[in-house]
Input
Amino acid sequence: MNAAAVTTSPDRAFTEDQHAIWATLYARQASQISQFACREYLDGFDILQLPDDRIPTLEELNAVITPRTGWKMVHTSVRYSDATDWYRHFARREFLITDYMRSWDELEFTPEPDMFHDIFGHLPFFTLPEYAAFQDLFAPAFNRANADQRENIKRLAWYSTEFGLIREQGDLKIFGTGLISSSGEMAHALAGKTPIQEFTVENVLGHDKVIWSFNSALFVADSLDAFRREVMRYIETI
Ligand SMILES: [Fe+2]
Output
């Protein structure tokens, strides 16, 4: 392991080893997404043009994303942000990018979201105004919700933005960023090893979620707009 620091940004420095992990993960997932990811993700991926050999800087990410949707990427040294803090940033259209990078032992799956997940999984979507409008639903609702409703909002976000599936011309495609950035769980889901239900408020809120392992169920919708309408249906009750 080469632990020499390589400065890629005024506010963040990563090691050669961390850049090498990025490059390895990028190579693995880039070969998967063209086949398995949904159209929206692929559109955003073309727009964002992530580097394949190094961790990108926040400056270069924001230069593409902010003019398109108003969202801004902000770095955090917190490994797993508390939901209240997370949604406080979300309400300002700030997306937190952790400095934590998974290790060589966790290439296929990391229970904690790392910077590869945050950047490669989420950020292509944030170049798209229609996706930003979907994300914009969650924070205002969370901020006015009671404790039980907050748990429900987190669950609806988990099974849509993080782990949702979408139908495209009869095929099942990956919408959730947690699946896009995890080759192990992506393969597991698409191999039919995970039970799939329709993404409805009742189905999602009736299901117990696990966070430290592969999901025990996944949820599918017909389109980004179908996810938006279903989440709206719950949010309007708050
Ligand atoms: Fe995520």
Q: What stands out?
A: Residues 113, 117, 121-122, 162, 177-178 surround fe (ii) ion (CB under 6 Å).
